[in-house]
Write a structure and sequence with these properties.
Helices cover 19% and strands 38% of the residues. With 130 residues, it is an alpha+beta fold.
Length: 130
């Protein structure tokens, strides 16, 4: 039986570097869900980046959460935003962006980018070295 919604809690741990803003980036190359129209599998690489506040995501729980979409039919746009909403709820980060880069289907590559920025938070200016 296929789950109707993602399973698994997203576990967190205390940010060990709260004294400064820093970015956590990760790639999740084995994301799968099902096309809600055809039932065929859709494959994507998820590129997650966030600036933590008090909490960071525990990787094994994130992996299990992402795997829970494997047998669920959902549109690319819906699943990307759903994952962002869940991570924002669990982490309350200063900034979070998720790019879901789906493999080709019908000759079309689809990339969905969704982000959330805490009100009032401003990113540090990048340093460009010669």
């Amino acid at each position: 039986m296929s789950p109707k919604s993602p399973i698994g809690d997203i576990e967190t741990f205390q940010n060990p570097g709260r004294a400064r803003d820093y970015t956590i980036r990760m790639q999740i190359p084995e994301f799968t869900c099902l096309c809600p129209r055809t039932g065929q599998p859709d494959f994507a690489t998820l590129e997650l980046e966030y600036v933590p506040d008090k909490l960071c995501v525990e990787l094994k729980s994130l992996k299990l959460y992402v795997w829970s979409f494997r047998d669920r039919g959902t549109f690319h746009e819906a699943v990307t935003n759903e994952i962002v909403d869940r991570l924002v709820t669990a982490l309350d980060p200063k900034f979070l962006r998720l790019a879901a880069r789906f493999n080709v289907r019908g000759g079309i590559y689809t990339t969905i980018v969704s982000e959330r920025r805490r009100d009032g938070w401003v990113a540090q200016e990048p340093v460009i070295l010669p």
